[in-house]
Design brief:
The structure is a homodimer. By secondary structure, chain A is α/β, with parallel strands linked by helices. In chain A, about 35% of the residues lie in helices and about 30% in strands. Chain A has two domains: about 5-160, MoaB/Mog-like domain (Molybdenum Cofactor Biosythetic Enzyme, Chain A), CATH 3.40.980.10; about 165-245, BMC (bacterial microcompartment) domain (Alpha-Beta Plaits). The first copy, chain A, has eight helices and twelve strands. At the A-B interface, helix 1, helix 2, strand 2, helix 7 and strand 10 of A face helix 1, helix 2, strand 2, helix 7 and strand 10 of B.
Chain lengths: ~250, ~250
């Protein structure tokens, strides 16, 4: 299963001016595509911090998605930072420059041309939208921070990340988490390929712990689910049988 | 201004089973307290990853807040990971053990006692709640992932992080971001202590860019605000004059 990391570049998120929307959106997309999201990092609009973070994540994971810091103003330093991360420089990309000039026409202000600046060696990734590509450098996809644009651009190229489906089951248990810890240990030991999560809830009426079972091997998830339901016995309030997520 | 980082430990967030609530809550709290949040990281329930991440953040920032991985089940590895991060071991803390035994009484299951396990040398931080302290190791505050508990425990001890207020102003501009980039550059150059953010919006009726101006020095923020309003002229749709945030 390919892995991914999200890097959110945004003083405006860290200072609470805007609620984070892009990672929240991408979490669901990546899950549906069968990509294993391993890390989300929210960092300031700081060139060196962006460079260090992107370099580290690009080396560890298959895909990296950045959000923000792409635009015509002083705080838009992502392109420069990613160039720095990979030891290259920023160039004005001719195809993009043409698009920018065509789009703004007479209304073009010089800073708009910064939208055509990319790290030298970047790839222009086209999806269904043949006009505005996504800029990628190696395994780093550089997306804008404005949520409507972020979504549109990711959806446009998402098919290239699609892999396989995962199977998930849920068991709702009316017991203290400590009372089922041993049962969970047994299920974990018997089915190591199944990822088991245990989540205590205090505001629910009829259950106190939600247990999730998740994996790529449907038969294994089903066996783990059956074992847990058997062991937890009457403490099980209800359950959702193994079902595929993704498409 | 003291700095902070948030480390969210949670497979359940990365896989989209639950929406992240704790960082979202803490962003607003830290801002109101006058603490400069520099980084949010969401990572899996993995001992080595938690240890490496916490060690790195604790060295860089004044305060680190962790969320999750604290409880009686197999996936609760935060205490062990933080002990590992600082080269110590996990011990059963006598005061906490007494609390756990008193709370559960006859219903105590052995795994519940794991709630009394902390890194050796940890501090028990008491707020108004004299029964359940927050466990801290050096500058790392170890909070539970369940949102109701996370909030309650942070609110209980938040006064120890309170510092000063910041001043913020906002200018709503009806122009393309490229058209005001030069004006912003001028304001940035004239008032380097003021943090200026420029945020294009496409779904608003009457403006296209929101500019925020923020700093600790109220007079500087006011001067930067006045300069921007003057330079942007008739492009300014409305504005919010400098006002204090925090208490």
């Amino acid at each position: 299963m390919p892995t991914a990391a999200i890097v959110i570049i945004g003083d405006e998120i860290l200072s609470g001016k805007f609620v984070e929307e892009n990672a929240a959106f991408l979490i669901g997309e990546l899950r549906a595509l069968g990509v294993d999201l391993k890390r989300i990092t929210v960092i300031p609009d700081d060139r060196d911090d962006i460079a260090a973070t992107v370099r580290e994540q690009a080396a560890k994971f298959d895909h990296v998605f950045t959000s923000g810091g792409v635009g015509p103003t002083h705080d838009d330093v992502t392109m420069e930072a990613i160039a720095l991360a990979f030891g290259t420089t920023v160039i004005r990309e001719p195809v993009l420059e043409q698009r920018v000039r065509a789009y703004w026409g007479d209304r073009l202000a010089e800073p708009n041309l910064r939208l055509a600046d990319v790290p030298a060696g970047a790839e222009l990734v086209y999806g269904k939208d043949q006009v505005w590509p996504v800029v990628a450098y190696r395994n780093v996809y550089i997306l804008p921070g404005v949520p409507t644009l972020f979504r549109r651009k990711f959806v446009d190229i998402r098919d290239r990340f699609r892999t396989e489906t995962v199977t998930i089951a849920r068991v709702y248990i009316d017991a203290d988490e400590g009372q089922i810890a041993k049962d969970l240990d047994n299920v974990v030991a018997a089915h190591p390929s199944v990822k088991i999560g245990s989540y205590p809830r205090f505001a629910e009426k009829d259950f106190r712990v939600l247990v999730t079972l998740e994996g790529r091997d449907t038969a294994e998830v089903a066996a783990a689910f059956a074992l847990l339901v058997e062991r937890a016995g009457t403490k099980v309030v209800r359950s959702e049988a193994p079902a595929s997520v993704g498409q």
